Write the structure tokens for this entry.
Amino acid sequence: MKRHLLYIVSLLALVTFTACSTDPEDAVSKHVYSESESPYLRTDTSANIAVNAEFRKGYIVDKTIRLKDYAEKIQSHLGMTVDDMLAGLETGKVVFYNIDANRGVWNKTPQNVTDGWGYKADGLVSDTVQVATITLDKQTKSIVLHMPADSKAGVSLTTNVGFAVNNGRDYDRYVRFNISMAVSDPSVIIKTVTIPAGDDYPSYELSFSDKAVEKAIEVCFGMTVKDFNEAVQDPDGDIAMYMIDASGKRIESKYTANGIGYWCDKDGKPRAHGDGCMFFVETHDGTVGIGRYPKIASGSTSKVHFVYASKTDVSKFMEFVITANYE
């Protein structure tokens, strides 16, 4: 009897030892995802890259995300250089997919535009209604964000794309771009002003420190009033003034007034100083002046429509629509 008890105790001990084995082969294997499945997105906030792209209505140009700018993060999370990552897309070692953030999975929807996808306003891939596209330009090593040139102000979307190491089991090593895209309306300063009476070129001076103007400078140029004022004192600098015609287009013309400014006829078209002029728009120190030509009848009115705009970045501009009454 004692011999049987010893045998049973020994057998239980053996079973217990086997059950507590630390051999990896004895553990439950991690799920291997097939080509038809959407791998889960492993949570890793350090792999996230937030991108906010604002497009200016009327002057919409593509935005680019330079992958080289995130080379360190790519190296840290994928264990490879940007060049190696792009080369890996060709061999299948790396994948480039959308990410369904709400479901927490990778979205393997096939590309529906060249080297990328088109999206609806809810950020989901769409073959029909597309308010934006995101594509990969391997030659320039960048992600290109595009919105149609006729996009209306207020159109926006948020979506996620990412690169991941394809090890045949999961996409746990990745970098993720959380991209927000939106079309904003240019800041427009609309005012009614009165130009003083007189024949010695009197003017109404609109201060750059005016609350609406200061806000527009900050939003449209990312500058302080001081920096903007310094920039517009140089006629050959980056910021220029353009008069706007009746169709809403900028009029390309040499300056005809002092500094950055124009003499204009009754229709707001630039012209040389002399008969036929009605008003001038001139950049002064801290202000933009709107003045009258001599002998303009009191009670007259002019529409003064112009913009200050960057010569090197078409998305940076602010617009003035001024109704000028002549005292």
In short: Confidence is low (pLDDT under 50) at residues 11-28. Residues 187 and 219 are 8 Å apart (CA to CA). The first strand starts at residue 48 and ends at 56. The two ends are 123 Å apart (CA to CA).
